[in-house]
């Protein structure tokens, strides 16, 4: 003789056990995923009509690394990530953001290049930028346009 509630109870228990095993590997080893934040963002007023630079700091307070994979902005045809090594600038496709660490974009080092500007931003404007990551969702940053000679107190 079948009891009507017995089958439902067995299915519910089976489903609960199956879901218990579906947690992320991060939670089982005590590490958290990436926890990203952005600070110190700014763009010096560009001197060129077609290109501009951008600087910021990406902080990862999480227990796992993430990777910046692309950057977009409605003000430019393309936004690329560059690094400067031995005074030579080169484009890089992906940039690691270490666990419990940060990546600083500053003059003479890592920086954003806004290419094919659709309009030339002026001091006092704000440029919207979207940072895209391998693990985390997109992060939108409002980047104020500062004087061309601006140097922040943080040195970047």
Kindly list the characteristics that best describe this protein:
single chain; 156 residues; mainly beta; 10-stranded mixed beta sheet; 13% helix; globular
Description of the molecule:
The protein is built from two helices and ten strands; from the N terminus they run H-H-E-E-E-E-E-E-E-E-E-E. With 156 residues, it is mainly beta. Strands 1, 2, 3, 4, 5, 6, 7, 8, 9 and 10 form a ten-stranded mixed beta sheet that branches. The chain is globular. The N and C termini lie far apart (76 Å). The model is unreliable at 5-28 (pLDDT under 50).
The residue ranges in which pLDDT falls below 50 over 5 or more consecutive positions are 5-28
| Residue share in helix | 10-25%
Structural class: mainly beta
> Beta fraction of the residues?
over 45%
Number of helices: 2
Choose one word for the global shape.
Answer: globular
Order of H and E elements:
HHEEEEEEEEEE
């Amino acid at each position: 003789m079948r009891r009507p509630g017995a089958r439902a109870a067995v299915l519910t228990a089976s489903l609960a056990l199956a879901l218990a095993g579906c947690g992320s590997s991060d939670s089982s080893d005590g590490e958290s995923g990436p926890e990203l934040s952005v600070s110190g963002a700014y763009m010096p007023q560009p001197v060129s009509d077609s290109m501009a630079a951008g600087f910021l700091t990406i902080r990862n307070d999480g227990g796992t690394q993430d990777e910046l994979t692309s950057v977009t902005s409605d003000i430019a045809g393309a936004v690329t990530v560059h690094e400067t090594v031995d005074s030579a600038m080169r484009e890089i496709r992906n940039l690691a953001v270490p666990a419990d660490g940060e990546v600083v974009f500053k003059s003479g080092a890592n920086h954003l290049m806004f290419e094919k500007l659709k309009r030339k931003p002026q001091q006092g404007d704000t440029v919207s930028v979207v940072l895209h990551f391998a693990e985390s969702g997109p992060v939108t940053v409002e980047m104020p346009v500062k004087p061309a000679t601006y140097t922040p107190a943080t040195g970047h």
